[in-house]
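In response to reviewer comment 3 from the previous cycle, which asked for concrete evidence that the modeling workflow produces usable outputs, we include below a single protein chain processed end to end. The sequence was submitted unchanged, and the resulting structure tokens are shown without manual editing.
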Amino acid sequence: MASQELHTHNPSVLRRSHTLAVQQTSSDQNWQCGLHHSIHKSTSNHSGLNGLQATTPVSFTRSQTQPHRTLHKTDTNAQPKTYFLSVHHDGINAQYYLKRAASDRALNHHSRSSKPPTAKKIWKLTGSSIVNPESTYYSAQSNALFVSNVVGDELTKDGQGWISKVSASGKILKSKWVEGLNAPHGMRAHDGTLWVADIDELVAIDMRSARVITKIPVPGAAFLNDVAISENGQVFVSDTLKNCVYRYTNGRITKFAQGRATESPNGLLAIGNTLIVAGWGHIQDPATFATDVPGHVFQFDLSTKQKTRITQTPLGNLDGIERGPSGNFLVSDYISKQVFSINPRSGEANPLISDLNSPSDIGFIRHEQIVVVPDLYQSRVTAYKLFR
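The workflow returned the following structure tokens.
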């Protein structure tokens, strides 16, 4: 029986790279794998993939579908060889890409294409309800979009900002769902609470009653920009001008990461044990936000705080970030006025949407495959359907 090693390598789905020890029978039909790390879920809405624990033996058959787990392979001449492990657990389907170290028989799988998607405009929202929209966020629990309206200067505490509630088809559900904010920016929801970055405060809003629960001052903050929430409820908020990412947990605000390595952090996205960051770039002039080096897309390990670049070269003055189809990242570039689709494995960035003016913190309606783009200084929100 030949022994081989396979490595999973899909940072958009897995918590980290995992190693599976594989034994192959001489008939090339059966595979046995020992999973040497826990696999963690790929979505923030479920808790299902934690069931595959360290060193759990798993059997796979080429011609049969085993309960819950299947290893797929067909013919190809591509190098290196790749396997695709489909996992179904607690109602979640996930696909893991397993790179094969050995080079014997050619294998492949009919999987989702690596070709970047294309986008088609499907609706646009303007009018008195939408004034300087900075962020759009879709909540599956509420089946609604939330739009943060700055209504003026982004750094002025004037109490004029509000959040609008909008349907996935672009209809206003509540023009001023929550009022009395200053310059609301990025948003994320967790356990019925919408968390909003608002200059130097982290605002918690009860989504059922549309009432502000609390406003948490962030000492020393200058320009809180985006919010991400980990699976266990830790709230992260970026401060673009202070080169800092704060963490709120157990009633306390602490600095998670700070300094030049954070690249004037803007967009945030928490996936498993990683915090994905869209960097604005190193700001030289806070008055104009001019940079000496544009920003990368990169990630921090939430346990070790180790930084790993996803895009290997500077990409732009990056704003919002979401996880799109097939695990790719959707990232808006405010200065170049476009949205990119980024391959999480290679870091390759492809322009996706270009007919924009001041694209800010984008949202994504996953089940409809719709990207929602706020144009800050055009006072409009535009939705694009993605196709492959």
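The radius of gyration is 22 Å. We consider this sufficient to address the reviewer's concern, and the full set will be provided in the supplementary archive.
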